[in-house]
UniProtKB/TrEMBL annotation:
UniProt name for this protein: TetR family transcriptional regulator
DNA-binding region: 52-71
Alphabetized UniProt keyword annotations: DNA-binding
Highest taxon above the source species: Bacteria
Species: Phytoactinopolyspora mesophila
GO molecular function: DNA-binding transcription factor activity; transcription cis-regulatory region binding
InterPro entries documented for this protein: Homeodomain-like_sf, HTH-type_TetR-like_transc_reg, HTH_TetR, Tet_transcr_reg_TetR-rel_C_sf
């Protein structure tokens, strides 16, 4: 089972009064939780740079001072928004996979088992994105903060690495060797990212369906 526990945010320079728990979205005060909830919605809908701390505080029914008291900076709040979203997505897909663990399409063998697991991840992705309208929050955020020495960048990179490792683990568990599993895991993660982009920006409503077909074809060509 992949580890989806909280990953400390790298690169955050905390104020002396800022407590370590303030970098953990699971240990927020009620006001801190409201601020994170409001910021998460606003950042996803309108973008990180377009949303200021005044708008976040107003949406949360609190003050800008409370925001800085709880988080220290907007950058930390952005990183926590991304970390919580990553945690929720990872928990969602792992729960989805657990619910499909006994599913069987009647085909046997390493390739068939690997295909079932990989397609289940893409099915989870389709369900997760069914109500979203702006695509991948991590890619959207990277377009704004990537390369700017922002603490959120480490969260984004960790989430993308997790996706590669998830696919690789599923392939190993199906019976593929470590080397080919790692290589295919990266290829499948790239396929997933492309599907998200084409679904959101490319005007292809069944992009994930196309990704499922491509994944099935890819795995069918690999000697088991």
């Amino acid at each position: 089972m992949a580890d989806t526990s909280y990953v400390p945010i790298a690169g955050v320079r905390r104020r002396p009064a800022e407590k370590r728990s303030q970098l953990d979205h699971t240990r927020l005060t009620p006001a801190g939780q409201r601020l994170l909830d409001a910021a998460s919605q606003l950042f996803y809908e309108y973008g990180i740079h377009a949303v200021g701390v005044d708008a976040i505080a107003e949406a949360a029914g609190t003050t800008k001072k409370t925001l800085y008291d709880r988080f220290g900076s907007k950058n930390v709040l952005v990183a926590l928004y991304l970390q919580r979203r990553a945690d929720r997505w990872q928990r969602f897909v792992l729960d989805y996979l657990a619910g499909r663990a006994d599913a069987n399409d009647g085909e046997d063998g390493v390739s068939a088992a690997a295909t079932r697991s990989v397609l289940a991840v893409l099915d989870a992705l389709a369900e997760w994105n069914a109500t979203l309208n702006r695509g991948c929050a991590f890619i959207n955020a990277f377009a704004e903060i990537g390369g700017a020495d922002h603490p959120g960048e480490a969260v984004i990179r960790a989430e993308k690495k997790w996706t590669c490792e998830l696919y690789a683990r599923l392939l190993r568990e199906a019976g593929f060797a470590d080397g080919i599993s790692a290589e295919l895991g990266t290829q499948l993660a790239i396929l997933q990212e492309g599907a998200l982009t084409m679904w959101t920006a490319g005007g292809v409503p069944d992009a994930i369906g196309h990704a499922r077909a491509a994944a099935r074809q890819l795995l069918s060509t690999v000697p088991s």
